[in-house]
Amino acid sequence: MDSKVVAGYSTETVTAVDGLSLFCRKWDPATKALASLVIVHGLGEHSGRYVHVGRFFAEAGFRTIAFDLRGHGRSSGRPLFVRRYEELASDVDCVVQHFGGDPAFLFGHSFGGQLVLWTAQHFRLKVDGLIVCSPWLALAHAPPRWQVFAARKLNGLVPGLRFATGIRQETLSRDPAHLDSLEDLNLVRNFVTIRLYLEAVNAAKEIVSAPVIDYPVLFAHGDADEVTSYKIAEDYCQRLRAPSKSFKIYRGLLHELHNEPERGQVLADYVEWMKSIIQTGSLGREAAPNRS
Known about the structure:
This protein is 33% helix and 21% strand.
């Protein structure tokens, strides 16, 4: 394990169960940590886009870890390709076990939100709660049926074939200057392989069809999100059986809540929720949607 420390911030690599190296960033608070928090990024991005998030949580007292999924950012692995979805879930579990704490939380955005939910359904994670932001349970605009049909046919022949995601920066945040200031922009990938795309589609269907999670969950979504569907996420939350659940809707906000002009309030809401879980163990089983 290679580690580099710079004034409360450090980087290191964690070895996945199959030997791949996962690049991790860690922010330690100045005083004893209230809890540990592991961040799981979205499709095609990486931990460098969460540096400001890590700093915010560390300043709030949370030991924060953001890592690059396999095939993303500085981690090893074929770019945006997996043989099976379980490989990604295993990486999440591996990082949680390596950095774990008591208490501990998982935060996932978009594809990362989907991955957090799926992993929580299939692994016995040592965490006390999940924060799921703009999860990919369904896309806001579904691709044409012929395109999905073609992808399924090609999956058996050329699963590593790449195609553009078509996600535009203006659909992510209303603060383009902030987006341009994020680290390692050259490591962002605007494509996905057929295999990973279909694995994600199947995982989303599996999550939605089995609305049971054994951990407290906070969902957060902007109602102006043009990437993932907040309506499907809200419906899922309403049907979900969990120790406690809450759905927070941010009016007028786009896909990346943590990169919107209102990100300070969004992140503060996450901190408040985690502190409430630490203090009480839950927030009530049937929390109504909270619209900001």
